[in-house]
Amino acid sequence: MSTSYGKNINITVFGGSHDPEIGVIADGLPAGLSFDLAELRALMKRRAPGQNSYSTPRKEADEPIFLSGVDEIDGRCVLNGKELRAVIRNTNQRSADYSETAFIPRPSHADFAARMKYGEAVDLRGGGHFSGRLTAPLCIVGGICLQALAERGIRIGAHIASIGSISDDRFDLVTVSEKELSLLSERTEFPVLNEQTGEKMRTLIEAVRAEGDSVGGVIECAAVGLPAGLGEHMFFGVENRLSQILFGIPAVKGVEFGNGFACATLRGSQNNDAFTLDGDRIVTKTNRAGGILGGMTTGMPLVFRVAVKPTPSIALEQDSVDMVTMQPTKLSIKGRHDPCIVPRAIPVVEAVTAIALFDLLLDENTTS
Fold first, then answer.
1. Which of 362, 225, 346 is nearest to 297 (CA)?
2. Across the strands, what pairs with 258?
């Protein structure tokens, strides 16, 4: 299975949703880099299941356990240059929920494609290695990178842009600031820019949950403080490297930068970002490009959105096929599942964005 990412930092995720543990191995993180464990735990808690009524009732502490690569010095964790290896213990699995439907592929899950590729032995309990649970180890490395970027004056933050048809306010592509991202970081459970809209979103999620259904949404993420000139054109551009890791989040089905698909409805005169001066600094009057031109950062806020599909595990009866008898059958999924994965996906989006941007900063030919 292809479970690695990175150009300068190489990250490999291992384990399955119902294995005793899941984990991550990372090479290339600079020796001497330090991080605060309490801050990392706070990020992990935001992603962890069982925190509120609109997440799965499965409860996991998601405590990162470092097996190598980290020393404790003066109360802080410091990378020692060795391979970073960390695990998270799975303590609340219920594999029996999946035994009766082991060979009945769940709609919109990886089950059918995985069996066709890997055969009958593939582990699909709770989604196995294809589960969103595998984003937890990514948050360990991402949490470290978030702190490393913050020390360099680079701040990342995200909010719920929409749940179903209910939309939050959007970032101003030009003026999104560290202050605005800090405000979102205080709304850890349900980060929105407009709290009245957030209440409407919560009401929708509860209604969908009561119906045994699920709902998706969009996450908008921004990074400020980036220097101009990060990235490369064509295949190693900022969009390429961000998209690769963002699509590593199982529920993500689309990514757009800046105005994204809306650019296709405009003329060049409407879409172009004119240059101007801010003191002795060259900036753009607008930022429809989302802070990226030719695969490289412009120094303007980097802004993108990801589309998150509805959780495919729902209690409502669905059509499927029994792969043993090769007969059509009905399927009602048991187990514990999120009626909406969007709130818990936000820290994951922030974490993987930090990995990609820190990886970009480590490029040998980067101009900063």
1. 225
2. none
H/E/C letters for each residue in 3-33?
CEECCCCEEEEEECCCCCEEEEEEECCCCCC
Per residue in 242-251, pLDDT (tens digit) is 999 999 999 9
Domains for the chain: give ranges and CATH numbers.
Answer: 4-361 (3.60.150.10)
Indicate yes or no: pTM above 0.85. yes
DSSP annotation string for 199-264: HHHHHHHHHHHHTT----EEEEEEEESPPTT-B-SGGGSHHHHHHHHHTTSTTEEEEEETTGGGGG
The token duo for 2 is 């292809």
Q: Is 341 helix (H, G, I), strand (E, B) or coil?
A: coil
With tokens 């949404």, the residue in question is 217
Q: What is the distance of C-alpha 361 from the center of its chain?
A: 20
pLDDT band at 350 (very low <50, low <70, confident <90, very high): very high
Per the CB < 8 A criterion, the answer to whether 178 and 224 are in contact is yes
